[in-house]
Each structure stands twice: as C-alpha cells, then as structure tokens.
Amino acid sequence: MAIKERSLEETPTWAVAVVCFVLLFISIMIEYFLHFIGHWFKKKHKKALSEALEKVKAELMLLGFISLLLVVLQTPVSQICIPRNIAATWHPCSNQQEIAKYGKDYIDDGRKILEDFDSNDFYSPRRSLATKGYDKCAEKGKVALVSAYGIHQLHIFIFVLAVFHVLYCIITYALGKTKMKKWKSWERETKTIEYQYANDPERFRFARDTSFGRRHLNIWSKSTFTLWITCFFRQFFGSVTKVDYLTLRHGFIMAHLPAGSAARFDFQKYIERSLEQDFTVVVGISPLIWCIAVLFILTNTHGWNSYLWLPFIPLLVILIVGAKLQMIISKLGLRIQEKGDVVKGAPVVEPGDDLFWFGRPRFILFLIHLVLFTNAFQLAFFVWSTYEFTLKNCFHHKTEDIAIRITMGFVNFFNYTYYTKA
Fold it and tell me: Family per UniProt (predicted)?
C-alpha cells in the first residue's frame, strides 16, 4: 500500500522553520553579494558593468516570477483536460519507448504515471504525481494538459536555465577580457619611435604595399565570391590581427580625435569599455529570444531528429558572423584603394553602417547574443534532462545525440568567445 506524504499539519514546526531559515539565509547572502558587486562597479566607475548587473537582477527577477506563477498555477493548469488523441501527439518518446518504460497502460490510459510500485511496495519518489489525491481528467476519459509533476519539472528547468545563462555571461566576459590583454603590447608599440617612423604622415606609399594592403588587397579581393571564401577561412587564423588592430586604431583616431592626440589615446581601453557596453546587451533576454527558446522546446519531438541539426545552428550563425566581420575589414581596405593607389602616411579606414547587414551594426550583436543564449539553453536542457530522466532518455536516447550536444555546446561557446571582439 502506498504511503501518503505528510502535509504541513503533520510536520514538526522546527523542521519547517529550519527550511525557511536556510532559504532566507541563502537568498540574503546572494542579495548582499550582488549589492557588493554593484557598489564595487560604481567605485571603479564601471557604469556599463553596473547596468549589466541591473539587467542580471531583472532577468533573475523575471525567472523567479515565472517560477512563482508555475507554483501558484500548478493545480489549475493540471486540471485543464484535453482529449487523449490530441495528448498522444508530439511526444519526445516513441510509442515503443513509452511502452517499454511505463507499460502498455501508459499508452491506453494516456496518464503520465500510474501506480508503479518498487520492490518494497512504495511509490517511486521520482515517478509519483505531484497532485492532491486523484487525476480529475482521468475520470473524464481525458488527459491533463500538463500534469502537476510536469509543471514541477519545468520549474526545475527554469532554475537550471537561469544558472547557466548567468554563468555563460560571466565566463564570456572574463574570456573576452583575457583575450584583449595581448592588445596592450600592440598599444604600447604605438608609442615607440619605430612605429612613428613607419607611419610618418608625410610618407607616400602604394596602398597595396602597406601591411594592411598586403593582407586585404590581393587577387582574392577582386571577386565578391572569392572574398567571402577567403574571409570565411581567415577567421580561423586570428579574429583580430596586429595589422588590423593598428589600422582600425589609426582610422578611429583620424575620424574622432583632434590632430596630435594619437600618442595620448589608448585604443585598447576604449575597446574594453565597448566590451562592457556590449555586455549590458548580451546579459538581457529579449522577448524574441524567449520565443526562440519556446521553439527549441517544441523541436524536442520524436521523429524530428533535432539532435542532428539543432546544435549546429548556433555554430553556423557564429561562423557566418565571423566571416562577415572579416568581410567588413577587407571592404575597408578596398575603399582605401578606390580612393587612389597611393596613400599618404598610414592608410585611413572609414567604417560605415552600410557595411553591415541591413545597415544595422547592432544586428550582429543580436546574433551574437542569440548564440550565447541558445548555447546556454541547450547545455541547461541537457543537464536538466539528465538529472530528471538519467543520461539516456527520450530527449537524447542515442549515444551520438549525447556526444553531439555536449561537443557542440562547448565548441559553440569557445567559437563565440573567439569572435565576439573580432
């Protein structure tokens, strides 16, 4: 005979008080930690990072509000009944897998969990319905839209997704800062006599003979198709090279700073501030990205073989973005040559919004943001499904599925951090 779980009426008050105290202590510690980080950002005049922290708090509050709604609406949603023939569609498992796992009655009755006893005649705690008493839909010959236990599992997934998204953002920012440290040596080089001599403003040279010209002005740049192919493969050999950095630095100074201020300007610190500003965009989750997350959940349906194509979409997007960024730099070189074969001093590039897709530079930032969230979503979904249903389950029941999800999750992550500041 099954043992009924105790309610709060039958639970010692000291046990309830201990649990409440632990939860409050953890929550207060997290709040104080975030407050300390925010105070430190303001003290260091990191305005962009302070705004990013506020966005993280907002996202955590949104996810917490969603979790609260799931708890409050658990019973009403689980009492929404739908016909069995509709409930039998779009399952993660095939019928054979469901029969093997739950028995034939699972398919016939359309219920998520039946009275499944273990060897000691007790309910399995991971397979018992989180309902009060009985299934009201079953007595009507129907099935619950989402069972109370299913809502409880969704609640856990939202928590895992929040943790992974925050960790992804923090690690990405840290790796981006680490990557830009090598640019400090390039910045110091601009203060040397050798650099000043090599970029003498009174010196005339052919555009194709400059370091920037030799890299971007060649036979492959004469055709748009071959230029795209070249830029696609070029991204694998250094997202930002020294010659590109120095040329972009010179072009930025000529466009935005008065003459004679080049020696005092630190372009590397400016890029760091830009990274912090971009970070404020990346940590947020827009409604469009939430809709895409819902579509990802929808694709985990038996027969769609989503593991064969879904993990590769972020990789394809980030590779296209990397090629596009290389393409923009190459077009800057072509614009220099279009003005004349001879340049005076260092070549001056003139970036413009027309070089970006739809004339919107922030669209590329949106794509990068999308890749980060989808990577965090897929790894969070993998960890959650493994925790809830063991390693091999209906969401990834094949070994190659598991290998693809894990491998592509980490490959996409490192590709993302590699190209974010290209």
Answer: Belongs to the MLO family.
Residues 134 and 187: their CA atoms lie apart, in Å, by: 70
Q: How far apart are CA 293 and CA 298, in angstroms?
A: 9
- pLDDT per residue over 172-208, tens digit each? 777 777 777 778 888 888 777 777 777 766 677 776 7
CA distance 152 to 140: 23
Cα R_g (the chain), whole angstroms: 28
Buried b (16+ CB within 10 A) or exposed e, 363-378: ebbebbbbbbbbbbbb
Pairing state between β 143-144 and 81-82: antiparallel
In one letter, which amino acid is 103? G
Whether residue 178 contacts residue 421, with contact meaning beta carbons closer than 8 Å, is answered with no
pLDDT band at 416 (very low <50, low <70, confident <90, very high): low
Residue 123: band (very low, low, confident or very high) from pLDDT cuts 50, 70, 90: very low
Burial (Cβ within 10 Å: 0-12, 13-18, ≥19) of residue 163: middle
Cα–Cα distance for residue pair 285/62, rounded to 1 Å: 10
Model pTM above 0.90: no
Amino acid making up residue 182: K
- Exposed, middle or buried by CB within 10 Å (0-12, 13-18, 19+), for 379? buried
Helix (H) or strand (E) holding 46: none
Helix (H) or strand (E) holding 81: strand 81-82
Phi and psi at 146, nearest 5°, equal -140, 125
CA separation, residue 49 to residues 39, 268, 282, 416 (Å): 11, 17, 11, 20
Q: CB under 8 Å to 108, separation ≥6 — which residues?
A: none
Determine the residue type at 345.
G
**Chain-centre distance for alpha carbon 83:** 37
Give SS3 for 16.
helix
CA dihedral sign, ordered 218, 220, 223, 228 = negative
User: In which band, very low, low, confident or very high, does the pLDDT at 267 lie, cut at 50, 70 and 90?
Assistant: confident
Q: How far apart are alpha carbons 372 and 313 in whole angstroms?
A: 12
CA 265 – CA 257 distance, rounded (Å):
9
Residue 278, Cβ density class (10 Å: 0-12 exposed, 13-18 middle, ≥19 buried): buried
Q: What is the DSSP string of 208-264?
A: GGSHHHHHH-SGGGGSHHHHHHHHHHHGGG-SS-HHHHHHHHHHHHHHHS-TT-TTT
